Amino acid sequence: MNTVAADTEPLAPPPIPSWWNRRHLLDTESLSAEEITVILDTAEQFKQITEQGRQKLSILSGQVVANMFFEDSTRTRTSFGLAANRLGADLVQFASASSSLSKGETLIDTAKTIEAMHVDVMVVRHRTPGTPHLLSENVDCALINAGDGPHEHPTQGLLDLLTIRQQRGSLEGLTVALVGDINHSRTARSNIWALKKLGAHVIVCGPSTLVSPHWESLGVEVSYDFDEIVPRCDVLNLLRIQFERQYTRPFPSVREYALLYAMNKERMKRARPDILIMAPGPINRGVEITPDVADGPHSVILHQVSNGIAVRMAVLWLIAGSPAAGQQADQESE
Amino acid sequence: MSEILIRNGRVIDPQSGLDEITSLLVRDGLIAEVGSSTENAESVIDASNRIVAPGLVDTHVQLREPGFEEDETIESGSAAALAGGFTSIACLPNTDPPIDTPAGVEFVRQKAARACQANVHVLGCISKNREGEELAEIGTLVESGAVAFSDAPAPLASTDLMRRALQYCLMFDKPIFSHAEVPELSQEGIMHEGVTSLVLGLSGMPADAEDVMTSRDLRLAESTGGRLHLMNVSSRDSVEQVKRAKGRAARVTAGICAAHFSMTDQSLRSFDSNYKVNPPLRDQQHLESCIAGLVDGTIDVIASGHAPRATEKKMRELDLAPYGMVQLETTLSLVIMNLITPGHLDWPAALAKLTSNPASVLGIPKGTLAVGADADIVIIDPHAEWTLSADDLVSRSKNTPLDGSTMLGRAETVLVGGEVRFGAQL
Questions:
Q1: Could you tell me the end-to-end alpha-carbon distance of chain A, in angstroms, rounded to an integer?
Q2: Is the pLDDT confidence value at B28 over 80?
Q3: CB-CB: which of B195, B271, B315 is closest to A130?
Q4: What number of C-beta contacts closer than 8 Å exist between A and B?
């Protein structure tokens, strides 16, 4: 057998701390700094294992993960699917258009039906904030929020943190700006809470119709002047303008938005030499970011994508692989 | 000749200013004597350590029948009213069909009479089919017994129609009940727009949506001389506007629903759809302004805002769940816990907003213990501690966020027209 060395040694899965007792991942707002660090450390270990050539583990074999996406998604759904596969779990893809939801069944009934097929983890995306929370109260299996409307998208926030930490070693003391439609962005929220817990200074920047002054009272700096903040930032996270989420258009034209808030060559000249350019994608090239910047040397956008799989492996493993998860399930079945 | 003596209770009649421990004699369905020394009444209720007050009057109840009997019926809703101490309730016309014809008014009144629970008064539609376009036959509705007019819980978006309605109702001296909301500002949002909605990512309904409409309605009431009742004030600026309008002697009254002095937008952190109401639960500052408005008399009326919705409708995603909370059986406790116990209102002041004031807004001869009045009476145990169980509610719907909460004070015995219809069996 001429397999690589890493394949011949029995693989020790990343350790799960004894105090870990989280059954669901619904948000980053309620995570402690310790929990965030454990998720990032675990993700880092999975990333190394993957990079050593081990594409597939079997540490979650026998477990069933259901991808339940009630809203369109390609990236996140694929990323969770790959993460589950690499841990050896079985994956069920649930497509809402072809389900009983289109026959008038309620969401809770649909979830209970799927759970009755012995699903261990549900990964849920839904247009309405609080829906993963609602489901977690009505099913016994573990639940991961893969984006609930403008509320939270915790794994996106965590993978953004992992990407920054890999480049800078630590989040402590960094200035990170989130730029764009902050009010309607789940990515912004999940980033903000996690970044603050790990000691970063967070700026939110965008048109005043999309960046509420209330953010100040939540410990975040609010800016409407992109040019002023660019030179101060270690990281720029350029959020996608979500045209589909707003009732009335909050700014007059895409051209005007790009003029005021697009990260382009001119603004790069005034940025710090080691600035990191991030975007959760899918990006509107030419709107929030010009192609030369998106594909330039400061861009870590593709790192974000590969880190996404590692973070989702970590979250699935911590939630479904921890002894606490099994114990709790036993208690509930008694 | 039937007589009931209610003795040793603290008898409070806000209308006459009576507040003393005394006895009350009921004869042939009417209040016969206050401070009675009769010893040989047919029946006696001992009300020691109890408060004896006029039966409570509610200006804001959804009964849902006809059309939405899965939520509530006239019978179940009027029975729930009694369990909450209310002897007279006014029901909103948001039924299917809406109450915009004499037949609709008569249907509700007949069903209520047959149910033989609380008295039910009818709010007729302002507009035909509650569509907000042309006036319903308000004169005919008055003939058949409608006491006031409203398109609630929908706002009347058309400024022209609101102006016309206020003018037209002058002929009958009937008030317009307004749910003040600018629909294009609230956008069918889920909660109050503020810091909490920002954190939760839930679509917000700004206080501006209420305040701008309040301003319009007050302006039109003053210019037309019409009677306006703002049904559910919930924001700081609306309270201020009403206060100023009253200073100019506008014919305006204001009501508040129990939820709005009891709960804040923070409750939505649970994502529990039972907290989804319209107007939305606002933040602590708005709540404090509302309480200040209750204290200084700007807000005249406390209503339940009872909005029953079947469990299967509420157990949905927050954007699909309808607005509303059942409140008939919890309003009295919320008044005691959040207004009387903390010292914002004393018992006579709180009871005025639950009896004589709402009766006056509705123009009905209720909410009083005057000799000769209908003997609609509630006997309240102000110290009773009890645990609310949604399953035990008389209301057909269970959409309360207070399930499992410890409540203080409750209606113990309720008389309607001299007949005990809830509580103590004689």
A1: 47
A2: yes
A3: B271
A4: 54
